[in-house]
Automatic annotation (TrEMBL):
The keyword DNA repair applies. Transmembrane segments: none annotated. InterPro entries: DNA/RNA_pol_sf, DNA_pol_Y-fam_lit_finger_sf, DNA_pol_Y-fam_little_finger, DNA_polymerase-Y, DUF4113, PolY_HhH_motif, Rev_trsase/Diguanyl_cyclase, UmuC. Poorly processive, error-prone DNA polymerase involved in untargeted mutagenesis. Copies undamaged DNA at stalled replication forks, which arise in vivo from mismatched or misaligned primer ends. These misaligned primers can be extended by PolIV. Exhibits no 3'-5' exonuclease (proofreading) activity. May be involved in translesional synthesis, in conjunction with the beta clamp from PolIII. This is DNA-directed DNA polymerase. It catalyses: DNA(n) + a 2'-deoxyribonucleoside 5'-triphosphate = DNA(n+1) + diphosphate. Monomer. Keywords: DNA damage, DNA repair, SOS mutagenesis, SOS response. Belongs to the DNA polymerase type-Y family. Its EC number is 2.7.7.7. Coiled coil: none annotated.
Amino acid sequence: MEQSDRPIALIDCNNFYVSCERLFDVSLRGVPIIVLSNNDGCAVARSEEAKQFIKMGDPVFKIRDLIKRHGVVALSSNYTLYGDVSRRVTEVLHSYSPRLETYSIDESFVDLSGFGDRMEAHAARMRDAVRTETGIPTCVGIAPTKTLAKLANYAAKKNPLFSGVCNLMDQDVRDYVMRRIPIGEIWGVGSATEAKLKAQGINSAAELRDLPLALGRKIGTVVLERLVAELRGIPCIDFEDVPPQRKGMAVTRSAGTPMTTFDVLAQAITAHATRAAEKLRQHGLVAGTMTVFYHTNPHKPDRPRHSFSRSIRLRPMSNHTFDLVDAAVAAARRGWKGDPSGNGYGYTKAGIILDDLLAEADQPAMLFPPDRPRDARLTDALDAINDRFGKKTMVLAREGVSRTWATKADHRSPRYTTRISELPVIQL
DNA sequence: TCTGGGGTCCTAGGACCC
DNA sequence: TCTGGGGTCCTAGGACCC
């Protein structure tokens, strides 16, 4: 297989969630900031200042001292804001290349073929435009494969010499950089693969690149073999400027208080199934398979543990709230192991996963389709009311109103809330 | 002395990503 | 006390079939 000479750019926003927060609050600039996950459970984004002493994914309760000592501002996440800023960034990028793949909320691959010698200048202009028009700082990596573009982007972020744009189309520059990048930083090398490779004495991106393909497959799977090829400049991961049909979707939540009665669990399952059906309808999809699961806290191995998961075929395929809720609660009941004596299990997480998704219009015709105009009108009314008056204006009675299962953010003790909000803020 | 072989489909679980 | 949520892809192994 041949090395590619077609340049792919990866443009990645710096500390995206943090940068979004700083757009609207100048007092956050220059101070260490972290953004917390949904439940205020762990740090999912860090400013440069915070990266010095807080690791990605650190649980908040373990870093509370560090937060206090360094005057870190800890913010709950605001996904609506990040989604909107992301859309604006993508809009700007689109004016710089017709061929673009939005890879995640803060990264896009851009096809730079046809720019010749001007590709670096073009990338720099693109970066300036995003900065000027949205306020978000970015870095760009350019290389012949996606994996190398990711690597280039990493170098652009780490080494100020690149001034935000690292071009690895040149073999010598690429080799220089790859000899200095540890394998753990490579896109597709997680902790398990990192450990296996290190055991074989492979520590740098350059060493992994030089691994024989067959050995790559032996140590890992075909995935690692492809990764080695990508590091050699042979593209194995397609450029997807048309987003493929999504295969599944999920609604899962941790419970603020462990769920010890079936009633409470059923309320949570009802809420998640309701939301899952809403998501399906929003995307114009129906699902053919639904999986219900719930489990106790896996971080507490000394307590009674139980994990339940069951998949159900939905026939006909459906996006009706009632179909999903009924099936989900019935399935959940079959796995229930709680007992009223007080020795029951405390379930800390529950969720609904939908698979075999299909556009509503492509649904196979049934010989005897169920006649349910009433259900359809009901869900239409439900969506209309919740659209107009806000989420959860109308819910199934079964979901209940106590929401004892809801996440900590909704059910946090007053003191805890106070402590988070009283974290010191340094004003410039 | 000694239980067929080969194909497909499905699912659970692992690994990885942001 | 307190550890996110939502995705994708791959593989091994069981069920089933002829």
